[in-house]
Amino acid sequence: MKRLYVFSIKSFAGPFVVTFCISMFMLIMQFFWKYIDDLMGKGISVSIVLELLFYVSASLIPLALPLAMLLSSIMTVGNLAENNELTALKSAGLSLYRILRPLTVVVLLICLGTFYFANFVIPVANLKWRSLIYDIQETKISTILSPGKYNNQLDGYSIKIESGTDSKFKGITIHDHTNQSIVKTVKAERGEVFKSKNGLYLFFNLVHGEVFEEMSTMQGPTANQSANSFHPSRRYSFAEATYKIDLTGFKFNKSDDDLFKNKHE
Question: Torsion angle, CA of 223/224/230/232, rounded to 10 degrees?
Fold first, then answer.
């Protein structure tokens, strides 16, 4: 009987592992397909993606296990019947219950483990991946380009657009304070916005605009200067121009997990 039990468990283990991995792969691909727009083009590090994959995989295990157990059980019993092993066992006086007893015990143990896993691990995993997804979504460029108001999320820049959707906008104003000795303001009638392939730069293809540059001093007015003295400045216009902004000041930041405790499932 021990040989029969070992044989049945070995016959069940192989298909179970394969079907479980396939089920997990399909569920993970479904998850990434749902959030592909939030993940692409953000410059998210590989470690963050792997961390997200880890927590998502943990939360999907209870969904993959039932399918894996069903398919592996069908395959195990089907192979026994196909090779006439089931017929030989029954002719030896063994009932179907005794033949399937080891599989029943294994399935019950898996169900018990899944119950505790769902109670203690799934809530934490859901909390972690929802928090990560929220933080990734907050790095979208659309949060920088909100029509009708200035946005100061990028270090050294203040950007405003009048109207527009997706990547095409009208009434673009960019205040550049990255150079402390020069205050630069760029205005354009319209333009297109896109990110570099590595996600480190934001490019504005501007049409019909002007650039204002004014020299500034870090110190206050000297004895030979009045408070109302003018600083050197220049102004020039352009038909088309490309403006590049460094996105290192718009990095991925993790939020406090306590903000997402209501997402425990």
Answer: -110
